[in-house]
Specification:
The complex is a heterodimer.
Chain A lengths: L1 H14 L15 H8 L2 H4 L3 H9 L10 H15 L6 H11 L8 H16 L2 H11 L6 H5 L8 H4 L6 E4 L9 E4 L6 H5 L5 E2 L5 E2 L4 H9 L8 H7 L13 H6 L1 E12 L5 E12 L9
Parallel strand pairs in A: 1-2
Antiparallel strand pairs in A: 3-4, 5-6
Helix pairs in contact in A: 5-7, 7-8
Chain B lengths: L1 E8 L5 E8 L1 E5 L14 E5 L6 E9 L6 E11 L5 E12 L4
Antiparallel strand pairs in B: 1-2, 1-6, 3-4, 6-7
Classes of the chains: A alpha+beta, B mainly beta.
């Protein structure tokens, strides 16, 4: 009862629009508290347009859209092939990108979340539905990019990340939260920490997708100069919807198509119908196509 | 991504020719076995379309000698999940082989 009262008082403080937006500095052990703490809805009150864009994005579905692959890692990769215990150190190899705030989950909560991922794939009926409902509440939230992942590529420069600071690409200020300008948010290097080969702290590599190597070596190396953000956010005001391979409009935009054909009579004297077709496919994207 | 060229007899609808090119990457483990698990893949074979490059594909084919007219269709399909492709580009050509 006492703890429930303390929780209610704490959440009341943290969610009141008149109070500063704050985040706990220590690990969270309770699923509901974890969800509420990092829920993007906390940002919606002031940033409704951005929230609505993000809601359409795959970032908002980063857990439920990847159940099969992640559950396979948790049930086959770690325990059977690597013969290791499924602990937070292994869980984070997927969730560092799919749920960056996992950093603030206790070992027990990380295992609980991994359990939902496994149940979402393997369980039946109500148990499966419950697991999927839980996972729908977890995602790459505002806080994931605007705090947790800020130091992901250049910790020597960005230094210590303050859990109570919201890092932004712009230079505006806010009365509701501490704000700090983070130029990394405007650079491709920020996106490549997840949209490329992921290297875990223990050195293990995970090939979920390989976009970044292609971007750096084949696009930049040949004179390409646009960033991920230029095409996936700035163009056509795509914003935080950040469409990618799941969006046919941007897929079409990235592939120029030209076809030429000529029918003719093949053979001298006696002939048979013949055709020559020439097709030109130009990849205008800043990375290989297709890719994960 | 699949580029598909199909020629059909305009009169009968019979497929006279069909060919395709596929652009994809294959994940390999350290022993050279094809793998799907992200944790298993340590290298890739890259057979995708490269950025800022134009892939030129040439098709030359003969059709049934009795063909009077054919419709040649060039389709480009994009596969997001590996199952059902979405048509993203298409161009059709009509070819008449009747002698005047």
């Amino acid at each position: 009862m006492f703890f429930a009262l303390v929780f209610l008082l704490w959440t009341g403080m943290a969610w009141s629009s008149e109070e500063k937006l704050t985040f706990p500095t220590g690990p969270i052990d309770d699923f509901e508290t974890f969800v509420k703490t990092y829920d993007s809805k906390r940002c919606m009150e002031c940033h409704e347009d951005i929230y609505n864009e993000w809601k359409e994005s795959y970032h908002s579905r980063s857990m439920v859209s990847s159940i099969k692959g992640i559950a396979n890692f948790f049930t086959v990769g770690v325990p059977k092939e690597w013969e290791k215990e499924l602990n937070k150190q292994e869980i984070i190899k997927c969730l560092d990108c799919h749920l960056p705030q996992i950093k603030f989950a206790t070992e027990r909560l990380a295992k609980e979340i991994a359990g939902y991922m496994i149940d979402a794939k393997l369980a039946k009926g109500a148990k499966k539905e419950k697991a999927i409902a839980k996972l729908k509440q977890l995602n790459l939230s505002c806080y994931g990019c605007h705090n947790v992942k800020i130091a992901g590529t250049a910790p020597g420069i960005t230094g210590h990340i303050d859990p109570n600071v919201i890092y932004t690409g712009g230079e505006g200020e806010s009365d509701v939260h501490e704000t700090e300008h983070a130029p990394i948010l405007k650079r491709a290097a920020f996106c490549t920490q997840c949209h490329g080969v992921y290297i875990a702290p223990d050195g293990e590599s995970t090939y979920c997708n390989t976009l970044s190597g292609s971007y750096v070596h084949n696009y930049i190396g040949q004179g390409g100069r646009e960033t991920c953000q230029d095409c996936h956010m700035k163009k056509k005001n795509r914003g935080h919807r950040m469409p990618g391979g799941h969006d046919l409009e941007i897929v079409k935009e990235g592939l120029e198509f030209q076809a030429e054909a000529r029918g003719f009579r093949y053979g001298v004297g006696k002939w048979i119908p013949a055709a020559n077709v020439e097709v030109f496919l130009t990849n205008k994207a800043g990375h290989r196509t297709p890719d994960g | 991504m699949v580029l598909e060229v199909t020629a059909k007899d305009l009169g009968t609808g019979k497929v006279l020719y069909k060919d395709e090119r596929t652009y994809f990457e294959i994940g390999l483990d350290l022993d050279g076995y094809m793998r799907y698990g992200a944790w298993q893949i340590k290298e890739i074979l890259d057979m995708t379309l490269q950025p800022l490059k134009t892939q030129h594909e040439r098709f030359f084919f003969l059709m049934d000698k009795n063909t009077k007219a054919a419709e040649v269709t060039v389709n480009v399909y994009y596969y997001i999940s590996g199952k059902k492709g979405s048509l993203i580009h298409q161009k059709k050509f009509l070819m008449n082989f009747e002698e005047e």
